[in-house]
Design a protein that fits this description.
This protein is an alpha+beta fold. The protein has 16 helices and 15 strands. A hairpin with a 2-residue loop joins strand 1 (5-7) and strand 2 (10-12).
Length: 444
């Protein structure tokens, strides 16, 4: 058995039972931070953000706190577009007077304006989000996080102890902390929120917003910065950081420090990033400003930590922006808030398969089959092969296989109308021959 070594610059040899217990508690701490629903505290998040910029060698930014990730994204779009227009104007003036003012202004403005000058020849919306923010965003995110976090556990550890030390440290901490917090937080926080924010903004740029909060936010963005502001908003993921929703990696880094005892020079720079992960949610970074979202006031999950609520939103922020999920699947709000709008016909014909399954579960399969007077055509002894049923939709006969997935949840798949058995329908859904599928089922 490898000798366990614990020094400020070394951590190798696996972990002790006592350390494993501490890591379990450490993971719970970061899970609670990822699931936070208390209001954000300006007195704590603002110094943390300023510290990140300072660690990257950037000037102190304007820090703006907003009530939700949706407002954050649109506010970023408007502000980035406005700053880009301002910078482009300055760049044009600078080009006209450079010969006379080069010595006095070049050192102070060159880095800030060159990118905008080059970008002026590109499309306005791309330039607003990419050229005007990329250099400073890269410095604020990559430089600060790489030097302060990655180096703290990877480059610095490698240099101090060699590959074996890093491997041991990584194995000891990541397995006990990051994996646990990944499973408990990602589906419920970062992934779900990021996808929903992206979807809302995509709809906004296509003028397809249908929820009042989204529409008001989109309109405000357009009033401030026009079409370029909306285009910038659609690019928000280029410059975002997850804050408390990136808890898995933070748990990994801090466990190496707090439990295994690593004390490395980059930990000094990491301190501000850590505080921002504890005290803030999603944020977007710009050389002039940082916009930080408040935490949700509601965050509900199922037994597997997937976002889920049967009676209301799984996520709701204090401005009213809400997301609805059914066991991790994003669903239309009306399926929960106005259950009468969800019919068996909708459930069985909804284009997205996962949402179709969720709709059938919300209604319950008993209701779906009863409402459509489903007729059983064939039922396989294996519930994972399922049952072939036939229903009448808008005057035509349609066939579905009702199957039980590996998580013991039922869902429906449409199959060709000529399908004669459940096995045939199930095999068709996988694109294989029935005999092959049956052979696989027998072997397993």
């Amino acid at each position: 058995m490898a000798k366990i070594v614990r020094m400020p610059t070394q951590a190798k040899g696996g972990i002790t039972p006592a350390e494993k217990q501490l890591m379990d508690e450490h993971a719970k701490l970061w899970i609670s931070r990822a699931m936070r629903t208390d209001p954000i505290e300006p007195a704590k998040i603002v110094p943390a953000i300023e510290g990140i910029y300072a660690a990257a060698g950037l000037k102190k930014p304007r820090v703006v706190i907003v009530p939700s990730p949706l407002v954050m994204a649109f506010a970023y779009g408007a502000a980035a577009a406005i700053w880009y227009a301002h910078t482009a104007t300055r760049a044009a003036t600078r080009a006209a007077t450079r010969a006379a003012t080069h010595a006095a202004t070049d050192a102070a403005t060159d880095a800030a304006t060159d990118a905008a000058t080059r970008a002026a020849t590109r499309a306005a919306t791309h330039a607003a989000t990419h050229a005007a923010t990329y250099a400073a965003t890269d410095a604020a995110t990559y430089a600060a996080t790489y030097a302060a976090t990655d180096a703290a556990t990877r480059a610095a550890t490698d240099a101090a102890t060699g590959a074996a030390t890093y491997a041991a440290t990584r194995a000891a901490t990541r397995a006990a902390t990051r994996a646990a917090t990944d499973a408990a937080t990602d589906a419920a926080t970062d992934a779900a929120t990021r996808a929903a924010t992206d979807a809302a903004i995509y709809e906004a740029t296509d003028a397809a917003i249908y929820e009042a909060t989204d529409e008001a936010t989109r309109a405000a963005c357009y009033d401030l910065a026009g079409a370029s502001g909306l285009a910038c908003a659609s690019e928000w993921t280029r410059v975002y950081q997850g804050g408390n929703t990136w808890a898995p990696y933070e748990a990994y880094l801090t466990a190496a420090r707090d439990i295994l005892g690593l004390r490395l020079p980059p930990h000094t720079g990491y301190a501000a990033w850590e505080q921002a992960a504890i005290h803030g949610g999603f944020r977007v970074m710009h050389p002039e400003f940082c916009i930080v979202s408040d935490f949700p006031e509601i965050l509900k999950v199922d037994a597997e930590n997937r976002p889920h609520c049967e009676t209301g939103p799984s996520h709701r922020w204090r401005d009213g922006w809400s997301l609805y999920h059914w066991h991790g699947v994003k669903i239309p709000a009306e399926w929960i808030e106005n259950k009468a709008s969800l019919t068996a016909k909708t459930a069985l014909t909804w284009p997205n398969v996962e949402q179709r399954r969720a709709a059938c579960e919300i209604l319950s399969w008993a209701v779906v089959l009863k409402e459509l007077k489903a007729k059983t055509i064939d039922r396989d002894d294996d519930p994972e092969i399922g049952e072939l049923v036939e229903v009448t939709l808008e005057g035509s006969r349609e066939r579905f296989i009702k199957v039980l997935c590996g998580t013991s949840r039922e869902f429906a798949l449409p199959v060709p109308p000529e399908t004669k058995t459940a096995l045939e329908g199930n095999a068709w859904s996988y694109g294989v021959e029935p005999d092959l599928l049956k052979h696989i089922e027998v072997r397993t």
